[in-house]
Specification:
By secondary structure, this protein is mainly alpha-helical. The protein has helices spanning 6-12, 14-38, 47-68, 84-119, 130-134, 136-157, 160-166. The termini are close together.
Length: 167
């Protein structure tokens, strides 16, 4: 979905930016870790913690961007055989189910982050607070909800001809 407001565009693409930076960090740290381990015989002790952090952030922040760019896997063969009015009803049903699941995950992810805040748990080597790492869980679910809502509204209320004509 394209918007005219530049500030809104930057906000909507923040998840993509965070995912991209995190992916670059993951690749760079992993590559450097392999070099130091096998060629210099001096492995990074903290490598696994950084990789865990990167995987969590890529999964949850990348999910919102995947919704926005229609990149999630979908099997539409059966749905494509229905008339367009029934397709829209099925799309609304799927939207409700996805929103329910994401809301559940966001609520319980927030509870997890709150529990980690109360316990003050830190990672073993770098002493990074676990809430910093796992805050991507509820935030990412919230971003996925926003992006999926925008995608669904666009899909239901904007005809295919309007989208192709406007691009």
């Amino acid at each position: 979905m394209k918007t005219e407001n530049k500030a809104l565009n930057y906000l909507l693409n923040l998840d993509l930016f965070i995912t991209g930076i995190t992916l670059v960090v993951l690749i760079a740290v992993t590559f450097t870790g392999v070099i130091t381990r096998y060629f210099l015989n001096s492995p990074f002790m903290w490598l696994e913690e950084v990789q865990l952090w990167c995987f969590v952030w890529i999964a949850f922040f990348g999910g919102g961007a995947a919704f926005r760019t229609h990149s999630h896997v979908a099997i539409d063969v059966l749905v494509d055989m229905f008339p367009s009015s029934l397709k829209k009803m099925i799309e609304v049903f799927i939207y409700i189910v996805v929103m329910g699941v994401l809301a559940y995950f966001m609520i319980h992810g927030s509870k997890l982050v709150g529990q980690l805040l109360r316990t003050g748990r830190l990672t073993n080597i770098l002493d990074i607070p676990y809430p910093v790492i796992y805050s991507a869980f509820p935030i990412g679910c919230g971003l996925m909800m926003i992006n999926y809502t925008m995608m669904t509204i666009q899909s239901i209320f904007v005809s295919k001809n309007d989208v192709k004509g406007g691009e």
